[in-house]
From TrEMBL:
Lineage, uppermost ranks: Bacteria, Pseudomonadati, Pseudomonadota, Alphaproteobacteria, Rhodobacterales
Domain Bro-N: 1-75
GO molecular function list: DNA binding
Protein name per Swiss-Prot or TrEMBL: Bro-N domain-containing protein
Species in which this protein is naturally found: Rhodobacter xanthinilyticus
Segments passing through the bilayer: none
Recorded superkingdom: Bacteria
InterPro entries noted in UniProt: Ant_C (IPR005039), BRO_N_domain (IPR003497)
Amino acid sequence: MRQDLSRPLVDAFFLWLAAQAKRVSSKTDLGKAMSYMLIPERDLYRLVMRSKLPSAERFEEWVVGTVLPTIRKTGSYVRGEEAFDVTTEAGLAAATMHVMAALQAKADGFRAMFEAAKPKADAFAVIEEATGSMTVTEAAKALKAKRADLYGSLEHRKWVTKGKNRQATAAALRPGYMDTRTHTDTRGRVHSTPVVTPKGLAYLARIKAQKRA
């Protein structure tokens, strides 16, 4: 914590803190003498108040913005039906634990929101990366799916015909989900291959995201 205090305050503050601390001597179970410093609780709070750490600043804001005004008005810190008498160490500890639990619950809530939104974010990423129509093999790779599984899905939706020589169907061509790519081989024969358009890829990505959500 020493590093997050402003430099001009460091030396003077720690000299003052050392003067406030109480040295205590004791012996271990093996009879070895040892000594340690006890810092008064009030001085520990002073140290926290001077800290620039985000957690310390939140603690300070909670104390000066919520706890102290509530004590001034009611004589104790109250939340709903629970009362924390922060004038005692036990009450302050209980109030602190309550705030920590609330912060943890909020963090868990944000984590759950992130996990729920991740499939949709993945779907948008697939859409943004699409630069044109893709073969079914390329579309399967973009969707992180197996080629055979994607073909099965396209057949189920009647986007392509069944069988060895699959072709895009009129039901997929009309709305623009599929297209046909042609090429001529070295013997002059024309071949057609069904391809997934960016619109079709976006639709498939959304369907996949909904299934994962």
